[in-house]
Amino acid sequence: YTLALGQRSSGNALVGYNRLAQLGEAFQSSLSSLGQAAQASAGSVEVTVSQLAQAQSVQSAAFGDPDTVSLGTGPLTVETGRVDAQTGAFVATGKTTIAVGGGSLAEIAQAINAAKCGLTASVEDSQGGSALRLTGASGAAGAFRLGGIEDLAYDPAAAADSSMQTLGTARDCL
Questions:
Q1: What angle do CA 53, 55, 61 make, to 5 degrees?
Q2: Which one of 1, 20, 24, 115 is separated from 163 by 20 to 30 angstroms, measured CA to CA?
C-alpha cells in the first residue's frame, strides 16, 4: 500500500493513513485466520473398522462327477436384495429367471454366469465330491434368494430350511 500526500491538507492525509492502517490490519487478520485454519486441518484421522464387508456365499451338497449329476432343469429364479436388519426378512430389489437346460453342476454354473444376474457360480471340490458354490456381490445389498429348482432353493431369511449350506452372510463394512 502506498499513501501519496501530495498537495492535500493534513486532515485528508490523516484519513487516508487511518484507512491504510485498517486495510493492513484486515489483511494481517486474514493471513492469521488462514494460518490457523491450515494448522487445524493438518494432522491425522483415526478410523476403526469393526467389520469388513462380506459377500453372501452358499454351497450345495457334494456330489460325484460334476458333469453327470443332475439337480434338475427348468427356470431358476435369482432374486437379489438385502435382509432387513429389523425383521430378518429378505427384501428383493431385483429378479432374474434363468433357463437351466442341463441340470449338471457345470451346466448350472455356466447358465448362472452367462445370465450376469449378480452372482458368480463355480464348481468346487468338496468332501470327496463336487459342489456348486454361488457368491453374490460384497455388502449387505448383495444378498440373494434362489427358487425354482428344489435342490438349489435358498432363502437367507430361512437358511436352516435349505439344502444349500451358508458359507458367508451378506454384510456391510462397519
A1: 145
A2: 115
pTM, full prediction: 0.72
C-alpha cell recorded at residue 143: 444378498
DSSP string, 46-112: ----SS--BEEEEE---BS-TTT-----EEEEEEEEEE-TTT--EEEEEEEEEEE-S-SHHHHHHHH
Tell me the pairing of strands 55-59 and 165-168: antiparallel
Quote the cell numbers at residue 12.
Answer: 485528508
| CA 122 remoteness from chain centre | 22
Block means of pLDDT (10 residues each) for the chain, 174 residues, are: 49 53 61 56 77 95 88 95 94 96 93 96 91 96 96 94 94 91
